Amino acid sequence: MRIGELSRDSGVTIPTIKYYLREGLLPPGAPAGRNQASYDQSHLERLRLIRALRDVGGLSVTAAKEVLDALDEPELSAHELMGRAHQAVLRDRGSDALGPEDHEWTRARADAAAEIAQLGWRVDPDAPALDQLADVILTLRRVNRPDLLNLLPQYAAATLGLANQEVRLAAADREPAAVMTTVVTGTILGEALLATVRLLAQEHVSATLAEERGEGCEGDGASGSDAASGSDGETP
Amino acid sequence: MRIGELSRDSGVTIPTIKYYLREGLLPPGAPAGRNQASYDQSHLERLRLIRALRDVGGLSVTAAKEVLDALDEPELSAHELMGRAHQAVLRDRGSDALGPEDHEWTRARADAAAEIAQLGWRVDPDAPALDQLADVILTLRRVNRPDLLNLLPQYAAATLGLANQEVRLAAADREPAAVMTTVVTGTILGEALLATVRLLAQEHVSATLAEERGEGCEGDGASGSDAASGSDGETP
Fold it and tell me: Are A187 and A82 in contact (CB under 8 A)?
């Protein structure tokens, strides 16, 4: 198919498709006459995956490219690919305001490792997720809410149960390519699914408690269909 | 204290502090001579909360301002404030590629509502989280991984258990201001904590399975300390 048809079928604009081609997120089409290229089903599927990683996974273009590059390395094991997906997700989250040069952070990093060790989890000591956990621990301390960390064991128990399902879902796939997309979607889209379901669970519990407390609760709380949208500034 | 001291104590640069003052995320200091203002502990605490929402919560400046504005509305109930926090989080996630004009999305939105109704959860029919759930459902269908939705009941059970702890943690606070920051941190930082612990749980399960399968697993998988950083492009 031509780029116009690819754009129609994927819902991605032609300038964006050309941008993905330039950045190497999307492999080039087959030459079809001067200034023309022909694309196939694989391009359409790749475009849908890119949009999934960007729109729902919230990945930056750089992070999305990392994941796609890993997908294209046939020698990677499912475990290694998951590691790459984790790296990509965490890359976007790395905070410059926090970091190893800060001795408070170093303490939080040690506490993060200790918390996970206490769970008996098999995690690489250099896992970037431990750095992220240190960021969260340090941040909760800085906003004087270290008590939220008391929920860590419950979070751990809940996510361990889910991880068993998620990882085995991938392992269940026969065909290697299917394993890979399952790992990527399970890691990145699964996080979006979990985060969204969590908000709904919170609304349910909060609405129930609000009624118990006799608070007015005509859905003006956790509902928000009336919220005005705003444009975003950026930090200089 | 002067702005220089506020910058030192908070770790936020002076230009960024001035930007937050301009954008109204940080209330002005007390006048102290020409072109001078004096700041106090409340400014320091607000700055730390802003950084927490931005760095770890991943909120845009617009979304962070929404949350902070809600924090400053004393008449809001905890339930309403949580709703505002949810709106802010979801605002950043709204995808333009997906949306009500798309009839596939409309179907996904109906399925999302049906899934939650089946759980018996008390959720406002207009809750933005249902729109987000529709985005995730539609996206999983587009990348041909609707099977991930089979995990929805497990995700729901896990998050309901956590939400009971999270929401009651806030309800346990006596002082209103404490309730509010607990709601905000519990909603937004709790999501970061959960997402991070989930990655660690996945690494643990994946490493264990990889060993069972006899795959090499010297931490080159889910570890990623060796990953090179890359700069990010943006979609035109």
Answer: yes
